[in-house]
Design brief:
The protein has 766 residues and is mainly beta. The protein has 2 domains: 1-98, Immunoglobulin-like; 218-372 and 410-765, TonB-dependent receptor, beta-barrel domain (Maltoporin, Chain A). The protein has 7 helices and 40 strands. The chain has a 22-stranded antiparallel barrel. The chain has a 5-stranded mixed sheet with strand order 8-13-14-11-12. The radius of gyration is 26 Å and the shape is globular. The two termini are 49 Å apart.
């Protein structure tokens, strides 16, 4: 591995720089008038210019070679413009007027192109859009993307589901590094606050070529908050009230930048009571509290960019079991989990003559504790539940006493991860762009309490990849190959409940994977994409070594040390037509998974928990998404959107897979309120999500009835003497519908999802 890194560094050695500059003008393609305030963003090296009153811009201190700039302005379509130095130094860039939102550069794919130029379809949603949904968690907000849903445990815990796959089959990246925080558990959330997240990108389908094991089902890529523009300081604060949980969230951030050095910090606090269903009952112990701190230090120069980021997230979340005592207390109530998550990352980019080297390093520490009540405490608690609201104060006193007495967690796991990602971008050769990279991870898991879900273990990953992009005027090709190896070494342990010895484990897993894609501009408005990719996932520690009751899932789980890799092959076809006032898309996919790992009930019961064993069988998932977006001329402020999604998952024996989302349609009407002297950036929205009955269920699931949820929102900003006051009002499930989602882990207990919630947000920027 050291030789590979040394070889990549040798490729990056260059001799010197001849300095050039590129100047140009940005004009309206219809009127040929200059566009003032357009952003001209050079990708490598990272440089940004703003057009002046004559539409002119200047990019200085560039070396000989090929360059690509992304040009954007409000009210115009975003465009990528390529040029070479010293051949071309005077640029004239035309932008076309459009009512479509400005495109942004996609970061999760290696060539950092606009979505309209990407061979692989990538969905993107901004932080502002997430806030407008009124969601409690980050994963709730992204469920408005067609093909993306959320597996929930109450209102505190959510896991992304991409086209029917979740948990260790969906990889999450944050701050440029892979997130590792015991994602094998159904009731383990992301441990990341949406505060300080600039945007979210979603790759739907196998992305093992770019990210290795666990990206078999897709990738959720979280882009952190950007640094402020050079020589500026921004300060903002916001508070949000949630009516359903009587919850409160508050955050404050400061973001300052000099010419080269940049700094930001953001703190967030959120606390919620037990949520209330549509029939007026509160779901006992769904309360949660979260603290989040994000900070960053950046440095920019002509040939180097560095971002050092740190995120600390601490939360406690109740583990709900039934609808019992009705309380609006926010105090800890046993059973609950307490999770501390530390993420430290360093993202380096070195720019050379027409090439670059990206080096990303990450250190993550996850401390997960679960607190459980003793048997006699459980009986006392049960008696109190029958007493109802009359003894709520006594119940809160009981909560404090139990929290004080129960100082030692029943379960405590420390997960420590070091990962790296090194990619060298070769100098462009004609129409070819090529990247060679290595990625790896070293991870340790340690148990510090009596209960053991997974043993003490070490996991080592290493992978090498190569990918290339070939660009023609109307057609683009992208292809790549990758090889990975993973070694898992687990210590033996004893299950004290059954006095069973689980033997030590030593396994090696490896896989070759590839991807081939093509994007064709059939006409100037009609684009087609066809992608074929393979992916893999090595079995996780829970699947290999479990033996015992998992109280968070109410199951007795038995692992299988002989499990093989999951290996999949997916074909994805995407068609999109868009003009100035109309967009329509359709995506279809077929995903064949060999040796799919699943839990299968054995029919036995141990300690009142049903016994499940891990098994494998070939499986397939297929379906797709269809959507339309209308913003009719001359009513450019009016938007009508409709998205439909379908996923069907089956085993080879024709039995349905578990936790497959039901068919759904999301219809949204939203308007952009024209700016005036008093108000700016105003909007209003109304949406109806219709979820159909899910009767394609696995052997241990039951059918789920369909339902419809009505949501609405309004927001605006008020400029005031250099300050900006932001106001946001959002309502979800406005008709107070009593319903149960098929992807709710509380469904087996018959516990409904959240009823009506009104959230009111007030913020300030200066």
């Amino acid at each position: 591995m050291k030789n590979i890194i040394f070889g990549l560094l040798l490729l990056a050695v260059t001799t010197g720089y001849s300095q050039f500059s590129a100047k140009g003008i940005v004009i309206d393609s219809d009127t040929e008038q200059p566009i003032i305030g357009a952003t001209v963003q050079l990708q490598k090296p990272e440089r940004t210019a703003i057009t002046d009153l004559s539409g002119a811009f200047l990019l200085e201190d560039l070396s000989e070679g090929s360059y690509s700039v992304v040009v954007s302005s409000l009210g115009y379509g975003t465009r990528t413009y390529k040029f070479e130095l010293p051949n071309t130094q005077n640029l004239q860039i035309e932008l076309s007027p459009t009512a479509i939102e400005m495109e942004e550069i996609i970061v999760s794919t290696p060539f950092h192109q606009l979505q309209s130029e990407n061979v692989m379809k990538v969905e993107r949603i901004t932080a502002e859009s997430l806030k407008r949904t009124g969601a409690f968690q980050l994963t709730d907000g992204i469920s408005q993307i067609a093909g993306v849903e959320t597996l929930t445990t109450g209102s505190a815990i959510g896991k992304p589901v991409i086209r029917g796959l979740s948990s260790n089959r969906v990889l999450v990246y944050t701050q440029g590094v892979r997130l590792e925080n015991q994602q094998f558990g159904d009731e383990h959330g992301l441990g990341i606050s949406s505060s300080g997240i600039e945007s979210v990108e979603v790759i739907k389908g196998p992305a093992s070529l770019l990210y290795g094991s666990d990206a078999l089902g897709g990738v959720l890529y979280l882009n952190p908050e950007r640094f402020a523009p050079a020589d500026s300081t921004l300060v903002d604060a916001e508070t949000i009230y949630y009516s359903n949980t009587e919850g409160l969230e508050a955050n404050v951030g400061v973001n300052t930048s000099a010419d080269k050095l940049k700094f930001l910090a953001r703190g967030n606090f959120a606390t919620h009571s037990d949520y209330e269903t549509g029939n007026g009952q509160r779901v006992t112990n769904t309360r949660f509290t979260e603290y989040d701190l994000k900070t960053g230090l950046g440095y920019r120069s002509d040939n180097y960019k560095g971002d050092l980021r740190y995120n600390f997230n601490s939360s406690f979340a109740g583990i709900p079991e039934d609808i019992g005592l009705q309380s609006t207390s926010k105090s800890k109530m046993i059973p609950y989990q307490q999770v501390d998550n530390h993420i430290l990352s360093l993202d380096n980019s070195f720019y050379f003559n027409n090439s670059s080297l990206d080096v990303k390093l990450g250190y993550l520490f996850n401390n997960r504790k679960e607190f459980e009540e003793h048997h006699e405490e459980h009986e006392e608690h049960g008696e109190e539940e029958h007493e109802g609201e009359e003894h709520e104060e006594e119940h809160e006193e009981h909560e404090e006493e139990v929290g004080h007495e129960e100082e030692e967690p029943a379960l405590e796991m420390h997960l420590e991860t070091i990962n790296y990602d090194v990619k060298y971008h070769f100098p462009a050769r004609g129409k070819f762009e090529t990247i060679l990279g290595i990625q790896g991870m070293f991870q340790t898991n340690k148990n510090l309490a009596e209960e053991i879900l997974i043993p003490d273990a070490t996991t080592t990953d290493a992978g090498i990849l190569a990918t290339t992009h070939y660009h023609l005027e109307r057609i683009d090709f992208q292809a790549g190959l990758r090889y990975d190896i993973r070694r898992i070494s687990a210590e033996g342990y004893e299950n004290h409940d059954t006095e069973t010895e689980v033997p030590a484990l030593e396994r090696d897993f490896n896989s070759y994977n590839g991807a081939l894609g093509v994007k064709l501009d059939i006409t100037s408005h009609f684009t087609g994409r066809l992608n074929l990719a393979s992916g893999f996932r090595a079995p996780n520690l829970a699947e290999l070594t479990s033996y015992g009751s998992h109280h968070g899932t109410n199951r007795f789980e038995i692992g299988n040390p002989d499990l093989d890799n999951e290996q999949n092959y997916q074909l994805d076809l995407a068609l999109e037509y868009r003009n100035e006032h109309f967009e329509v898309f359709t995506n279809a996919f077929y995903n064949a998974i060999n040796d799919y790992i699943f839990l299968d009930p054995t029919g036995e019961v141990f300690d009142e928990n049903p016994v499940f064993a891990y098994r494998q069988n070939d499986a397939s998932l297929y379906g797709g998404e269809i959507g339309i977006h209308i913003h009719p001329h001359p009513l450019d402020w009016l938007h009508l959107e409709s998205n439909y999604e379908l996923v069907i998952g089956k085993q080879e024996n024709d039995e349905y897979l578990p936790l497959i989302p039901a068919q759904s349609i999301l219809n949204t009407l939203w308007v952009e309120i024209p700016e005036g002297k008093l108000l700016k950036e105003g909007y209003a929205s109304l949406s109806l999500k219709t979820v159909f009955e899910q009767d394609n269920t696995s052997a241990f699931e039951t059918d789920t009835a369909g339902y419809s949820l009505l949501n609405a929102g309004f927001g605006t900003s008020v400029p005031l003497d250099g300050w900006e006051i932001n106001f946001r009002l959002t309502g979800t499930n406005l008709l107070d519908k009593t319903y149960i989602s098929h992807l709710s882990r509380l469904k087996p207990e018959g516990i409904p999802n959240m009823g009506r919630n009104i959230s009111l947000g007030l913020g300030v920027k200066f």
